[in-house]
Write a structure and sequence with these properties.
With about 775 residues, this protein is α+β, with helices and mostly antiparallel strands. The protein has five domains: about 200 residues, no CATH class; about 80 residues, Cytochrome Bc1 Complex, Chain D, domain 2, CATH 1.10.760.10; about 100 residues, no CATH class; about 70 residues, no CATH class; about 230 residues, Beta-galactosidase, Chain A, domain 5 (Distorted Sandwich), CATH 2.70.98. The protein is about 30% helix and about 20% strand. It contains 25 helices and 23 strands. A hairpin with a 5-residue loop joins strand 13 and strand 14. The chain is elongated, with a radius of gyration of 31 Å. It starts with 5 loop residues before the first helix and ends with a strand.
Length: about 775
């Protein structure tokens, strides 16, 4: 008998017999943080090699199994099953399921596909269809898909190549042919019930969200799959084939014999069997060159001893955690993905929308809290739209303990407070947290209540979430643990054991003790009864919030001398000046406290004001504008694309802030304070710039109707600016009549260079 017959061969081309696609495994491609052999070991886990090959029990990946098929007949359509069994990678591009039938002659293969389909369709509850799920809304589902985190693994296209430049994305183009709306909704609602190995995580969707998402993904498929009757003879044949093909190695089913072990791991070779790329009496994987090389490297080097550090790295790669989180300089969302991560608290910047770094997470989070976040859907950042997926405790239950072993910081002692001193210490912490102290409530919730400012992490959850040693080190230097955070350094660095160091230690421990009371902690001042007008006392005063004069991440700085300014932390720019009273605060700004100068202010440009360039661009890159008609920022990465990174700020003994930010490898320290010369009161802005090499930075120092005067003085009708000795260019805007811009060239030596700019308000 001929091995192929032309009509049958042509018929099966539609099922994709002769085409294959590389298994897509997010987190384990050429960009993986793992060494090549470690990546190969993890890849063998994802391809479930240990399910067939003896001697792999010691490998971390041995726990991986295939989907539960006990009710597959109710979930998946017959047409899809036929196509998938005929050629898995053609029906589902990038699937990890190997082709089990590729060595059969076409006619035998056709019979095997029909028999296996009949057997699988018979699995369920006596031919009953799944109960109907509520009808979803596809438009809401599309928004949910783009919002909660699906994009990290699946990209943004259902029927074509993703715009995200990563080859390991898992396409969803097959879903509309595989599921009904109801069966997909049920799967999305509890994916770990079917895929127990957790590579499709649980996003803790409500039933309505699951319905909406399913409706979007199936794009008009029927709401309920029809129950089908299978021929008993084909069902029996399919059952025998299921066992003969050793499908039970990955898909265990009741009343079926255990899997047959194949060659032990020690006898596997990169050019034989499944890894050969040839057809034969074994599963066929069409591996990429990287996958084949990595697995071959692992087989030749042998299994390296497990360690907590290695186990953490492999788990983060296998579960694609580094698509959203950064750890050790690896991973984090790509610019493409970062653009799509949103927050209801825009003023918190990237820390309000991008998942946090996993650096030192084992030393930061208490194990119980980590488990709540990973497995119970607990959320510390409800304002971030991207959700933390749950991969199941059976799969990652050891990860919190592994993080604990790997991540260490020097322990800081928090001695017990004696009974006689408890009230005094708690009272001190209570005051420090409120608006009469450090004003932590300006940016944080307290027990779900807002002081009218940003609604950042709830302070009252700190004691349950955070390890005390990490809390202490974070409070002493926020930027050292979370670069770019808006939170200031309240305690300047002091000599260890010196008076400043001792005072900081006492105050931080007082705050921790106060927070340890949990629900019993009295509400701090400023929560629930915020004032309207903020005054400046003997020290400088800093207030953070939204403002028309300084944007979503505005910071206002007031001085006892009666001259004040505003700084836009989003772009690293001094954006406004005024004299007289400080600011008034309003509480109707979508959860963020608005501040506005209490006297007429000089509005300066809010665009990024520095560029690393030899020559000024023909048109300075301007900040994207939003309007009522177009309220969504068209380019939220505008500052980052220009090299800007905010690094936070610190306060000196007089309460005066120094802002830290970077442009590429060049670090900037930016501090302003009042200076008096006779009757002239001005604000002197000092820039201390550290560069690893000689360079030139362009500073767009002033914008408007500028007139040049003597001695490096430039003035608009509202402000006079004196610049240091430096080359400059005063040029018209590209559009006639819009004024001029002053661009100053700051020549940097290797090391530290300092510059001073004086601003004088003219009215």
């Amino acid at each position: 008998m001929k091995r192929t017959a032309l009509p049958l061969a042509l018929a099966f081309i539609g099922l994709g017999i002769d085409s294959h696609a590389v298994p897509s495994i997010a987190g384990l491609d050429e960009n993986s943080s793992l060494a090549l052999a470690e990546a190969g070991e993890a890849l063998m886990g994802e391809l479930q090699c240990a399910n067939c090959h003896a001697g792999g029990a010691e490998y971390l990946f041995a726990r991986k199994s295939g989907p539960d098929l006990s009710e597959v007949g109710q979930r998946v359509s017959s047409v899809f099953l036929m196509k998938f069994l005929a050629n898995p990678s053609d029906a589902h591009k990038g699937t990890r399921m190997p082709d089990m039938l590729q060595a059969l002659p076409v006619k035998e293969r056709e019979g095997a596909v029909k028999a296996l389909t009949a057997f699988l369709k018979s699995l369920g509850h006596e031919d009953e269809a799944l109960p109907a799920w509520e009808v979803g809304d596809g438009a809401r589902g599309k928004a949910l898909f783009e919002e909660v985190g699906c994009l990290a693994c699946h990209g943004d296209s259902l029927d074509g190549p993703s715009r995200k430049p990563v080859e390991s994305l898992s396409t969803l183009a097959h879903l509309s042919g595989k599921y009904s709306a109801s069966s997909l909704a049920q799967f999305l609602h509890e994916p770990l019930e079917v895929r127990k190995s957790g590579r499709m995580p649980d996003f803790h969707l409500s039933s309505r969200e699951a319905a909406d998402l399913a409706q979007f993904l199936v794009q008009g498929r029927p709401q309920v799959a029809k129950a089908e009757q299978a021929e008993p003879q084909k069902v029996r044949l399919g059952k025998r084939l299921f066992v003969q093909l050793n499908c039970v190695a990955c898909h265990s089913l009741k009343d079926l014999p255990p899997p047959r072990p194949s060659l032990p791991f020690k006898d596997l070779r990169r050019d034989r069997g499944c890894l050969s790329g040839q057809k034969g009496n074994f599963p066929f994987y069409d591996l990429s060159s990287f996958q084949r090389k990595a697995i071959g490297e692992c087989l030749e080097e042998g299994h390296s001893p497990s360690s907590p550090e290695k186990s953490v790295k492999q788990a983060l790669a296998a579960f694609n955690c580094l698509a959203c989180h950064e750890r050790g300089g690896q991973g984090g969302p790509s610019p493409w993905l970062s653009l799509r991560m949103k927050s209801s608290q825009e003023g918190l910047g990237d820390h309000g929308r991008i998942p946090p770094s996993l650096d030192l997470v084992g030393a930061k989070l208490k194990p119980l809290w980590m488990r709540k976040v990973m497995f119970d859907g607990q959320r510390a950042r409800p304002y971030a739209h991207t959700r933390m997926p749950s991969f199941g405790e059976d799969n990652l239950g050891l990860l919190p303990a592994l993080f604990r072993e790997v991540d260490e910081i020097e322990e800081v002692e928090f001695p017990e407070v004696g009974r006689k001193k408890r009230g005094e210490v708690r009272s001190a912490g209570h005051k420090l947290v409120g608006d009469k102290g450090l004003n932590c409530v300006a940016c944080h919730l307290f027990n779900g209540k807002s002081a009218g400012g940003f609604e950042g992490l709830d302070l009252l959850a700190s004691y349950d979430r955070i390890e005390p040693s990490w809390f202490y080190r974070f409070m002493r230097s926020p930027r050292s643990l979370r670069p770019g955070i808006v939170m200031p350094s309240y305690w300047p660095p002091g000599r260890e054991g010196g008076e400043a160091d001792v005072n900081a230690s006492i105050q931080i421990r007082a705050i921790w003790h106060y927070l340890s009371y949990g629900q019993g902690a009295p509400t701090p001042s400023g929560v629930g009864n915020p004032g309207t007008n903020l005054e400046v006392g003997e020290l400088a005063r800093v207030y953070r919030g939204r403002s028309r004069i300084a944007g979503y991440r505005g910071i206002s700085v007031g001085f006892p001398e009666g001259i004040h300014y505003a700084f836009n932390a989003e772009t690293g720019t001094l954006t406004g000046l005024w004299k007289g009273d400080f600011v008034s605060v309003g509480w109707g700004g979508q959860g963020a406290g608005n501040f506005n100068p209490r006297s007429r202010a000089v509005q300066l440009a809010q665009d990024v004001s520095f560029q690393l360039s030899e020559a000024a661009p023909k048109a300075w890159p301007l900040r994207p504008e939003t309007t009522k008609e177009k309220p969504v920022n068209p380019n939220p990465l505008y500052p980052k694309n220009l090299g800007y990174r905010f690094r936070g700020y610190s306060l000196d003994d007089l309460g005066i802030p120094t802002f830290s930010y970077a442009f590429g490898k060049i670090q900037m320290e930016d501090s302003s304070r009042p200076e008096s010369s006779g009757d002239v009161h001005l604000l002197r802005r000092r820039l201390s710039i550290t560069s690893p090499y000689a360079a030139k930075v362009l500073f767009r120092a002033l914008v408007g109707k500028i007139e040049a005067g003597p001695d490096r003085i430039f003035a608009t009708p509202e402000v006079r600016l004196t610049i240091p000795r430096a080359a400059f260019e005063l040029r018209d805007f590209p559009a006639p009549g819009e004024g001029r811009e002053l661009i100053v060239s700051l020549i940097l030596d290797e090391g530290v260079s300092e510059f001073s700019f004086d601003y004088e308000i003219l009215r």
